[in-house]
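Exam review. A common question shows you a sequence with its structure tokens and asks you to describe the fold in words. Practice with the pair below. Do the first one on your own.
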Amino acid sequence: MLKLRDGIVELYRKVATSLPPDIEEALKSALSSEEEGSSARAALAIILENTRLARETSRPLCQDTGVPVFYVQVPVGLSQLELRETILDATRLATVKVPLRPNAVDGITEKNSGDNTGTGFPIIYFEETSGSTLTIDLMLKGGGSENAGQTYRLPVSELNAARDLEGVRRCVIDAVQKAQGKGCPPYVIGVGIGAAKDQVTRLSKSQLMRKLNDTNKIAELAALESRLLQELNQLGIGPQGFGGKTTVLGVKIGVNHRHPASYFVDVSLSCWADRRGRLIW
């Protein structure tokens, strides 16, 4: 497991210091769409220069290296207990080597563990698969954008949001309006729909792992993603909240079956640094 541990350390380095190509291309496209001399264009230019320097110097894109969130697809017969320990060991090493900012704070004592490990930290989701390949996806989720997320229980009378996709649409717009530039836009938006609060929060965050240029397999959701992308970029919040045409880079929606009495919607916001990457072992 030592080679796997070292591979995870390098995954941490890659995710912390380099934007995914689709995110960087979207930021470049956004730059060209903003007006010359505008605060929005200046903010995007700084973001792209920061991205270049981080990649060239192998330094983190942001001082907040976030909460590590792992999505691990495990072949049958491979020990999840052993994998968890390997991920924890890699996290401790990456904190020193990348370096990562120590972000794991005990909720009772307020003591920082100093190595990004602790109770439920990092967050690790395992899924057993029938294949023979171990796949490890990592997201570094910034605290500011995490704080801007919202959970809704439909119907919501003040939004005139019923238990349908139109209601979901109203919730997403409301969440971005409430954020008002907090959490470092332009955002990537993840949306989860389902039966329970814990289910939809996990689902919405996992949507942030999708590439911006993918197409939702459910036609109704693909149409809603496209519509929301246009509508959210008409809000005028813009990069870093300075105004402009680019508030959101992408919208991704996932859905689960729900209970007849429950219709939960969770909206996750990622900052412009939607830091994600994959290790295949």
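Now try the second one, then compare your answer with the model answer below.
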Amino acid sequence: MATPASDLLSRINSISGCFDDDYCDKQRYAVKTKSRKLNALLERGKKNRIISKKLYCDFLAYRWSPRVFSEKPVTHDELDSLFEAARWASSSYNEQEWRYIYAVKNSKEFSVFLNFLTKSNRQWAKNAYVIVVLVGKKYFSHDGSHNKSFQLDCGISLGYLMAESALRGIAVHAMAGFDKGKISEYLKLSDEYEPLCCLAIGHYSSSLKAEEITQRKPLDEIRFNGLNEWTKAQAGNRRDSRAQA
């Protein structure tokens, strides 16, 4: 029997009420650790990250993809929490096309998964605690037709995973530098599946440099109110390109 709409609305309101300003203040510095050096580093990096408009929970603005990790293990429960977040992403026809296959440091398969990566990625990803392969299912289950949205849907799922990692202070670095052939052969993937990216997951390290905490483009460079604003922006970009040339 379907749940009445009024009951659903009541449940949604009770959940959203938990996310008040005090809650967000507590989560804003979720990445803090017992290391004073690391805390100071994170604070310096965050100060350079200007938030254009107030975010309800601005811990999202403090997520970035490091290339160094601490030796602290990522627990099974922490890892499953990331995958649980990824599970709730939206998808076309609710296909839920994402599949996450992973290997944990010191396991027999970790070196195999590490070798999926390009040489430049292996040099730093070897210090991560987990290597993950994100595989997307290319065809709909209900009729077998090609799902043109499968990559987008898997990207949304990955975004959910990264949001949860930001809340928990866990570092996630997605990589496009990997060998699809090696992954497909080792995982015995049928034509139904395509490797989309690899992830290095671990805890932030105090050996980071504040300058490595990447910045973001201003809001005016990524959102445009209709054709008029978009056209003006493109004209400005063309002028800038000619001036640089």
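Model answer, second protein: The domain at 35-224 is CATH 3.40.109.10 (NADH Oxidase). The mean pLDDT is 85. Full marks require stating both points clearly.
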